[in-house]
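Hi support team,

I've been running sequence recovery on a batch of backbones for a student project. Most finish fine, but this one hangs at about 90% for roughly twenty minutes before it completes. I'm not sure whether the input is malformed or the queue is just slow. I've pasted the structure tokens below so you can try to reproduce it. Let me know if you need the job ID as well.

Thanks,
M.K.
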């Protein structure tokens, strides 16, 4: 901004320019004010009141603007107190930033002027000062819960983790692809699809009943589109909303969630995929820890429940041919001393058509890998893809999908390379690093069966 203004002045000699205005108080975010090295200067801060404490000779406020967990202490003359200056109100405070004598904070703002921009009806407001409400309670107010410490910390972590995921892939030579949200395929073949239809009720006679001429759905995975792109860019990723019409109210399922997906060409071993999963997890987590340590600490100190060890999971899990259920996944992780576990080579019949046959028996296993983590179960799912045209052709034919997936078979005809990839559920990742029990508390506006608030 400053640079741009200088440039304008230089380009336009201003003989009739107005006299410069007296220096205005610099507008600072709370985070900037808290970290300011330079004190005894006039500043202006805007935000929401987190607490008001009126004493005989002094009025204390705490102002938060979402830029940090910590609020800025404002010290004011009690004459500045106003009927509307309450918990939850939106305010603008102007004054001098000074060194604080209080040992818990470096600086405080000595208010000269306080303007209540938007009052708050504290009786009706569902949150109260210094009260830590259970997450289930806050969930009822998706339009207001971002004003609580827990949700604002969560949303800052979510934002930093998003940026870190993009930088991880960029730094490792991946191209980001916007895969479509509306698609005509069911990548996972599980039939958990939301149909996309227009709201036009009346159809003209003879008019095709499909807007796109074919049935269309909200995507369950961008993988197939990524496979197209991996055939030209070698390493690609996508990170976007994903939709599953699973009728599950579980604490780890959403109808709309975010998935990070990567696809790598010239990959012949599951180990290569495992390595990328591991590097992604470690790199993103260490960036999040360094960017918002206080936000992460809040979860570990006050929010995460003590990990309950379940004993009812101790049942046979190597029942060949049945899929791993949540309890089995938890048992495996527990059996491995509560550390993340990679499970490889799943039964052929349980997995989608695109997974590569290991040829260890007649259609016995596929080269699939899941990453299971403590407290959550499956965090990532990936595989080598079936790149051999005849294997893929016969599997699609058996499933009656050969026509629909002709384009996918084409990819195997024109410069097919061995390839593979994986998807990581972003909300499950956040649950895992923050120890949040319910997935509905790590996304701002959760969508699940019978609930679509806002
Ligand atoms: O294991 P999934 O179904 O794998 C795929 O969709 C692959 N096509 C990904 C790929 O290889 N490109 O889903 C991947 C991850 C799961 O491990 C889980 O973390 C998350 O997505 N996930 C969900 N998260 C929240 N709510 C749901 N309903 C989820 N379903 C899957
Ligand atoms: Mg899976």
């Amino acid at each position: 901004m400053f640079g741009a203004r200088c440039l304008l002045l230089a380009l336009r000699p201003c003989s009739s320019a107005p006299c410069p205005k007296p220096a205005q108080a610099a507008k600072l975010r709370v985070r900037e004010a808290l970290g300011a090295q330079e004190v005894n200067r006039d500043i202006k801060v805007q935000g929401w009141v987190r607490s008001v404490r009126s004493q005989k000779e002094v009025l204390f406020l705490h102002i938060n603007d979402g830029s940090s967990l910590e609020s800025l202490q404002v010290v004011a003359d009690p004459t500045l107190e106003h009927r509307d200056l309450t918990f939850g109100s939106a305010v603008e405070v102007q004054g001098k930033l000074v060194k604080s004598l209080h040992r818990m904070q470096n600086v405080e703002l000595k208010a000269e002027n306080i303007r209540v921009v938007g009052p708050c009806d504290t009786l009706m407001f569902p949150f109260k000062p210094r009260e830590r409400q259970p997450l289930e309670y806050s969930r009822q107010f998706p339009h207001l819960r971002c004003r609580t410490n827990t949700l604002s910390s969560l949303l800052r972590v979510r934002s930093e983790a998003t940026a870190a995921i993009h930088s991880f892939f960029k730094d490792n030579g991946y191209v980001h692809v916007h895969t479509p949200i509306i698609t005509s395929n069911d990548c996972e073949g599980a039939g958990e699809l939301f149909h996309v239809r227009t709201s036009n009720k009346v159809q003209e006679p003879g008019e095709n009943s499909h807007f796109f001429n074919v049935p269309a759905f909200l995507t369950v995975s961008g993988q197939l589109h990524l496979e197209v792109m991996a055939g030209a860019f070698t390493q690609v990723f996508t990170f976007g909303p994903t939709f599953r019409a699973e009728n599950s109210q579980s604490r780890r399922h959403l109808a709309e969630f975010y998935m990070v997906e990567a696809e790598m060409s010239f990959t012949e071993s599951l180990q290569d995929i495992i390595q990328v999963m591991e590097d992604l997890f470690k790199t993103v987590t260490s960036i999040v820890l360094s960017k918002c340590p206080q936000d992460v600490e809040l979860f570990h100190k006050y929010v995460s429940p003590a990990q309950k060890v379940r004993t009812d999971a101790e049942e046979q899990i190597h029942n060949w041919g049945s899929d791993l259920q949540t309890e089995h996944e938890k048992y495996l992780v527990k059996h491995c001393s509560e550390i993340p576990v990679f499970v490889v080579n799943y039964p052929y019949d349980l997995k989608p058509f695109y997974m590569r046959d290991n040829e260890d028996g007649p259609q016995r296993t596929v080269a699939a890998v899941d990453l299971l983590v403590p407290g959550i179960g499956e965090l990532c799912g990936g595989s080598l893809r079936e790149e051999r045209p005849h294997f893929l052709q016969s599997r699609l034919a058996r499933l009656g999908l050969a026509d629909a997936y002709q384009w996918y078979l084409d990819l195997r005809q024109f410069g097919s390379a061995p390839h593979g990839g994986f998807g990581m559920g972003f909300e499950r990742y956040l649950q895992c690093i923050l120890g949040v029990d319910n997935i509905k508390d790590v996304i701002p506006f959760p969508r699940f069966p019978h609930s679509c608030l806002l």
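--
Follow-up from support: It reproduced on our side and the slowdown came from queue contention, not your input. The first strand starts at residue 26 and ends at 27. No action needed from you.
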